[in-house]
Design goal:
This protein has 241 residues and is mainly α. The chain has 10 helices and 3 strands, in the order ααααααβααββαα. The protein has a 3-stranded antiparallel beta sheet. Strand 2 and strand 3 form a beta hairpin. Helix 2 packs across helix 3, helix 5 (86-102) packs across helix 6 (107-117) and helix 9 runs antiparallel to helix 10. The protein is flat, with a radius of gyration of 26 Å. 17% of the residues are buried.
Length: 241
């Protein structure tokens, strides 16, 4: 069926067409499929020189088994203490993860961040994240590295303990703002260098000059917000209204 999963007959046709030296686009047209579909099928099953129908079929069955096993796992339920409704907390975890993704955070990183945010302790180890999110240790490592670079978490290691912990606290957005300010500083400097190279009186140079001016304004606004937040925190800690 065009648009559906490749059948054994489709794969046999692909193998024969490759043997004849046909390209992905031509094979795709003959099967009513995009060339990209044919390219992925061939690439992940040995390439044009080694594509085999039986191997492709077995690989497809293996992927299907893995998807079925993953689907059979029960969803992770975040901390449900304090009399919380577990289902409501789960729905919150899913919706907040999607919101983070919409803000430009990659899906795996968004899942790790939401998991930490919804944990009362605000602290989890790599093993905790692997168990709760059912992802690999490598995925956790990549996600944590990304989030740390964005200022969205920090690493912590207690005295005498080898295992790292990843920590979320109320300063999460403060650190994220500081990271954004630092990046704006770098981008502003790069934009000004571009103006010097391209010339301020050229369209490209003027565009970079405008970008630098805007980034400076954003950084100044963020700095003022950070100062206001720090003043509010200090007032709250001293009990002042």
């Amino acid at each position: 069926m065009p648009g559906g999963r490749l059948t054994t007959e489709d794969r046999q046709h692909i193998a024969e067409a490759l043997a004849e030296g046909l390209g992905y686009a031509e094979i795709g047209r003959s099967l009513g499929r995009p060339a990209s579909t044919i390219m992925r099928e061939v690439t992940r099953n040995g390439g044009p020189e080694n594509y085999e129908v039986d191997r492709a079929e077995e690989a497809t069955r293996h992927r299907a088994r893995r998807r079925k096993q993953a689907a059979a796992l029960p969803p992770w339920i975040p901390d449900s203490g304090h009399g919380r409704d577990p289902q409501a907390v789960q729905e919150l975890a899913e919706s907040y993860t999607e919101l983070l993704i919409q803000q430009g955070i990659p899906r795996m990183m968004a899942r790790v961040l939401a998991c930490l945010l919804l944990t009362d302790s605000g602290t989890l180890t790599a093993a905790d994240l692997v168990q709760r999110l059912r992802i690999s240790a490598a995925s956790v490592s990549h996600a944590v590295t990304f989030l740390e670079q964005q200022g969205l978490l920090r690493r912590e290691r207690a005295t005498g303990v080898r295992r790292e912990r990843y920590v979320i606290d109320e300063e999460i957005w403060t650190r994220s703002t500081e990271a954004a300010m630092e990046m704006n500083k770098v981008l502003t400097a790069a934009s000004l260098r571009a103006v010097a190279v391209l010339g301020a009186d050229t369209p490209a140079g003027a565009r970079f000059e405008s970008s630098a001016e805007y980034l400076r304004l954003v950084s100044e606004a963020l700095r003022k917000v950070k100062e206001q937040w720090e003043q509010r925190k200090a007032a709250r800690e001293t009990g002042r209204p």
